[in-house]
Amino acid sequence: MNGFIEWLEGLNEKDTKVRAVLRRSLAFDPGAFVPAYPYIEPFLKGEDRPWQREMLYLAAGIWAAHWREGRNGAPLPIGRACAAHQVASGSTNTERRFITLLDSDPDQLPNRLRQMVALLKEQPIDFNDLLKGLLYWNEDQKRTQNTWARDFYRTLNNETATEYQNKKEISE
Q1: Taking CA 96 as the corner, what is the angle to CA 73 and CA 23, rounded to the nearest 5 degrees?
Q2: What is the CA radius of gyration of the chain?
Q3: Secondary structure of the chain in HEC code, one letter for each residue
Q4: Contact predicate 142/109, CB 8 Å
Q5: Which residues have C-beta within 8 Å of that of residue 2, sequence separation ≥ 6?
Q6: Domain total for the chain?
Q7: What is the pLDDT of residues 34-78, one digit of tens each?
Q8: C-alpha–C-alpha distance, residues 60 and 62, integer Å
């Protein structure tokens, strides 16, 4: 699905109502909000893969809800963005929500992902990476969930180690 987010960005540059329609689509099951069809279906080019179609609609809606003009910082994979939020907020609630997201079955995924991304409103998210992960969500090996978890805990551990080093240097 290379180029999908760029596709949405291009549509958005021509008409900002694209984001409003895609945000509204989040109130429905992915792919069930007819006004969003003109923005997603042309990208699908007639392919008939239901999971791929649903994930494109979900990613588009979440992208539209998360979009901010002039957002600063490099986009982060979702696991790193969650860890950055936890460090910035000091709340361990982020980790609990993140684990719940990773444990989502296909029916729970849209709602839990929307909630998580809403929590990350200040974090720049790599939506190309997010979509790639969503497309492989149902793999038996749980490659997406494992990658996101590794990103989260490695980032969290790096941040914690850095904080520890800084405190140690200050106290010496």
Answers
A1: 55
A2: 17
A3: CCCHHHHHHHHHHHCCHHHHHHHHHCCCCCCCCHHHHHHHHHHHCCCCCHHHHHHHHHHHHHHHHHCCCCCCCCCECHHHHHHHHHHHHCCCHHHHHHHHHHCCCCCCHHHHHHHHHHHCCCCCECHHHHHHHHHCCCCCCCHHHHHHHHHHHHHHHHHHHHHHHHHHHHHC
A4: no
A5: 128
A6: 2
A7: 999 999 999 888 778 899 999 999 999 999 999 987 677 899 999
A8: 5
Is residue 86 located within the same domain as residue 13?
A: no
The pLDDT of residue 122 is above 50: yes
Do 94 and 50 sit in the same domain of this protein?
A: no
Q: What is the CATH number of the domain that holds 62?
A: 1.10.520.40
pTM of the shown model: 0.88
For the record, the structure tokens of 66 come out as: 């998360």
Residue 35 and residue 24 in contact, taking contact as beta carbons nearer than 8 Å: yes
Give the Cα separation of 19 and 116 in Å (integer). 19
